């Protein structure tokens, strides 16, 4: 290709019979449907490329693509219904609506740092091995990852505009919320299938219904976190709960988590009302050394446990009038 071409026009290689293409440095834009229904299996993109248009790869057998340091924009439906499985991004600023919607994408490797925004339905209905969003990601729109399947999802601390239902219907084996994030808004992770969730120590607030009907096996609430009403409602696979010191747990925070087996609680937890409705015969472990006298705390613990495990240096004979077992 000529080194003076800045734009590859719409349908430029549509239904093209050749299988290999190298785009010479100087080209900045690839327009809509540029490679649609072609036989191109191997496409080498230039360092100069800035953006790709809609439906660029539809019907194209190319599976592996790399965009370099000047690249900024993946436009709406750019890879929708494409065969692209492996995408390597050296730079990126914007992923538009439905960019990967129902595509074959399996691996997306982001740069370590990027000022990134992701629009609605960008990765909806994809099956992706791993999404590690780069440091600098600020905006993820509602439904951006709706019904997406991932082995690992890592969310950076730079996220600013956090909206609910972003991950509705996701299936994620390992959700990592990085240190620095302070708030999870209402409904943010509800109706999801998580196996393991890692919350950061910096987290200060979990909104209403934030994890409602999610399917993780365990959760550890960091110290000083305020857990809102119904935050973990109907988490029926939740077996193990750990609540850090100085947390505030609001009404029905864990309502109908009926299969919970183990709860570990620390000192100075404030319960504003009853929070464990539906639980019973839970193995309760208290990590403090002095009995709890707060009425709401006492009522909550009496509801779920008939015996409490406490440390050897625990100073009282019972815990909230419940018999104790001292353990190392």
UniProtKB/TrEMBL annotation:
InterPro entries: LRR_5, LRR_dom_sf, Surface_bspA-like, Trimer_LpxA-like_sf. It comes from the Eukaryota. It holds the Pfam family LRR_5. This is Surface antigen BspA-like.
């Amino acid at each position: 290709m000529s080194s003076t071409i800045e734009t590859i026009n719409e349908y430029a290689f549509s239904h093209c019979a050749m299988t290999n293409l190298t785009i010479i440095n100087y080209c900045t834009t690839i327009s809509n449907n540029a490679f649609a229904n072609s036989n191109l299996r191997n496409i080498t993109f230039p360092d100069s490329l800035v953006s790709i248009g809609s439906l660029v790869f539809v019907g194209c057998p190319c599976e592996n693509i790399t965009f370099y340091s000047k690249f900024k924009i993946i436009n709406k439906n750019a890879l929708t219904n494409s065969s692209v499985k492996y995408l390597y991004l050296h730079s990126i600023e914007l992923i538009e609506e439905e960019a990967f919607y129902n595509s074959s994408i399996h691996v997306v490797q982001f740069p370590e740092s990027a000022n990134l925004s992701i629009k609605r339905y960008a990765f909806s209905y994809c099956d992706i091995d791993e999404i590690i969003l780069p440091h600098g990601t600020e905006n993820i729109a509602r439904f951006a990852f709706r019904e997406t399947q991932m082995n690992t999802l890592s969310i950076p601390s730079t996220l600013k505009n956090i909206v609910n239902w972003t991950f509705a219907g996701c299936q994620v084996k390992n959700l990592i919320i990085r240190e620095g994030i302070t708030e999870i808004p209402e409904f943010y992770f509800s109706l999801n299938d998580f196996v393991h969730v890692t919350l950061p120590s910096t987290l200060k607030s979990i909104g209403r219904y934030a994890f409602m009907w999610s399917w993780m096996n365990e959760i550890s609430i960091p110290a000083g976190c305020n857990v809102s009403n119904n935050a973990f409602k109907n988490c029926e696979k939740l077996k193990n709960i750990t609540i850090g010191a100085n947390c505030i747990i609001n009404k029905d925070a864990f309502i109908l988590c009926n299969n919970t087996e183990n709860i570990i609680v620390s000192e100075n937890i404030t319960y504003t009302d009853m929070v464990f409705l539906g639980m019973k015969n839970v193995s309760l472990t208290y990590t403090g050394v002095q009995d709890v006298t707060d009425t709401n705390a006492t009522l909550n613990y009496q509801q779920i446990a008939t015996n409490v495990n406490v440390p050897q240096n625990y100073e009282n004979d019972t815990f909230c009038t419940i018999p104790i077992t001292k353990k190392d």
